[in-house]
Amino acid sequence: MLIFILTGTYLFLCSYTDLRYKKINIPLSAITGFIGLACSVCSLSAFGFNHDYSLSEHTSFLTLAISICVSIFMLIVSRLTKGSVGTGDCIMLAVLSCYLSPGHIVSVLLYGLIFSGIIALFLLIIKKYTRKDTLPFAPFLLSGHICCFLLFYL
Question: Whole-prediction pTM value?
Answer without folding.
Answer: 0.89
